[in-house]
Amino acid sequence: MINADPSELDKFSQLAHRWWDPTSEFKPLHEINPLRLEWIDRLAALSGKKVLDIGCGGGILAEAMAGKGADVTGIDLSDKALGVARLHLLESGCKVDYRKTSAEELADAEAGTFDVVTCMEMLEHVPDPSSVVAACAALVKPGGHVFFSTINRNPKAYLFAVIGAEYVLKMLPKGTHEYAKFIKPSDLSRWAVSVGLPPDELIGMSYNLLTQRYSLGADTSVNYLMHTVRVA
Questions:
Q1: 226 assigned to a ligand binding site
Q2: DSSP H/E element including 119
Q3: What is the pLDDT of residues 68-108, one digit of tens each?
Q4: No. of H helices and E strands in the chain?
Q5: How far apart are CA 150 and CA 105, in angstroms?
Q6: Is 41 annotated for ligand binding?
Q7: 120 assigned binding-site residue
Q8: Which has fewest Cβ within 10 Å: 25, 82, 164, 212?
């Protein structure tokens, strides 16, 4: 069985045509992309690396990593999102290999293939996130880098990521996130360690209501990113 929720795929497929509109429901992704790109590049030096972006959607991060000189493969299970991603390559001139497959399926076929694996804003949308973490470990080369980003599970995260972002500020469509699927850093760390991906860095991402800007810092209480390195 594919590790995917049909309702989640349908939700994002319905919005796929708006992936590259920086004023659309995907505005937050466009705004955080420079931050997460520079963080990834600082830790993994993307130029010349073979990179896999899991849950690539319309390709915002995948294209940006290709722009840094990486050889990027992007995978997703949404035909519509992948269609938009491929069309955007005609505008940008970037080179990304987009494929419709799951992380688990690709791990069976291409284990130990990639220098860098990214899985950003995706784990909180699948039925079994630990299975995706295990697939990431299988896909990356020994000594390679795996990056995750997701949302913490606590009352503050519910207030900010669901009530605030979806209902008050309307930064995201209502129903984008389900609180029960949020993931504590301790759980993500445990899953990662169990498959040979000891965490190397944990960092938070915060939104300032006054400046309306995102920043990386020590506060991991809502959004956070984790860098792991595959045990050789």
A1: no
A2: strand 114-120
A3: 999 999 999 999 999 999 999 999 999 999 999 999 999 99
A4: 8, 8
A5: 22
A6: no
A7: yes
A8: 212
Residue 219 annotated as binding site: no
User: CA 39, 42, 47: angle at the middle one, nearest 5?
Assistant: 115
Determine the Cα–Cα distance for residues 118 and 48; give it in Å rounded to an integer. Answer: 16
Q: With residue 53 as reference, give the H or E element that holds it.
A: strand 50-54
The residue with tokens 């390679």 is 144
Pick the closest to residue 139 from 34, 26, 50, 43 (CA basis): 50
Q: Is the pTM of this model over 0.90?
A: yes
pLDDT of 7 higher than 70: yes
CATH code for the structural domain at 6-151+181-229 = 3.40.50.150
Indicate whether 169 pLDDT > 80: no
Give the CB-side neighbour count of residue 146, counting CA atoms within 13 A.
Answer: 32
Kind and range of the H or E element at 147?
A: strand 140-151
